[in-house]
Amino acid sequence: QVQLVESGGGLVERGGSMKLSCAASGRFFTIRAMGWERQVLPKAREPVALLFDNDTTIYADSAKGRFTIFRDEGKHTVSLQMVDLKPEDTAVYYCFVRVPGEQGLRDHWGRGTQVTVST
What we know:
Strand content: over 45%
Distance between the termini: 40 Å
Helix content: under 10%
Radius of gyration: 14 Å
């Protein structure tokens, strides 16, 4: 099994910065991709940023220029640095890792961390 523990999150003022981190542990040989999604109920979860093992990154349009995803391979940690936060960034942020398994690639998810940007 793969366990993910998220840290960071909380309340920040408009225009402020925040860093989210997610540490993966458990039984896996390699991580093919790591990323973040966010959700504001009742809307569907939406992708925020994705980092592949070849260092390719993909960002949602809303995140481009403001969010940066990076990893610490030695610690199997993926982080999301967010700057110039806006109230519309308020959401629960979930991290995930994509690892190969017996039946192919599988995503494992964290429990989520709340980010609230005040107006």
